[in-house]
Amino acid sequence: MRGFSDKTRLLILDSIHQEEKTVSQIVEELGGNQSNISQHLACLKGCGIIVSRQEGKYIYYSLRNEQIRGLLQVIDDVYAQVENEVASCEKNEALNL
């Protein structure tokens, strides 16, 4: 579950949900810095959530399998159902409640 416990890692997973991408493509899409994104990719790969393949000088990252893709879809579906409550929870965190 560690792989799913960080907002940046979830954004990365969303980014590669439909197609594999390079670090540069992910960085451009998320607007992060390459070092930070690379560290999160290493975590996701270490957790067994994503895989990589090298083609020339580029490394492409993708979801490990259809089960991970299905799990992400379930997360999206649940989030859509409880979106207002999640927003309230984030507000409570900011207030240290």
Summarize the structure.
With 97 residues, the protein is of the alpha+beta class.
Overview of the molecule:
Helix 2 (23-30) crosses helix 3 (34-46). The chain starts with 6 loop residues before the first helix and ends with a helix. The protein contains 5 helices and 3 strands; from the N terminus they run H-E-H-H-E-E-H-H. The longest helix is centred in the last third of the chain and has 16 residues, at 66-81. It is of the alpha+beta class and 97 residues long. It is globular. A hairpin with a 2-residue loop joins strand 2 and strand 3. Strands 1-3-2 form a 3-stranded antiparallel beta sheet.
Spatial separation of the terminal alpha carbons: 24 Å
Radius of gyration: 15 Å
Mean pLDDT: 88
What order do the helices and strands follow?
Answer: HEHHEEHH
- As a percent range, the share of strand residues is 5-15%
Count the E strands.
Answer: 3
Helix content: 55-70%
Largest sheet: 3 strands, antiparallel
Q: Can you tell me the residue ranges where pLDDT is under 50 for at least 5 consecutive residues?
A: none
> How does the overall form come out from the CA principal axes?
globular
The tally of helices reads 5
Order of strands, widest sheet: 1-3-2
Class from secondary-structure proportions: alpha+beta
What oligomeric assembly is this protein in? single chain
Keywords for this entry:
single chain; 97 residues; alpha+beta
Write the topology of this structure.
Elements: H1 7-15, E1 21-22, H2 23-30, H3 34-46, E2 50-55, E3 58-63, H4 66-81, H5 83-94
Antiparallel strand pairs: 1-3, 2-3
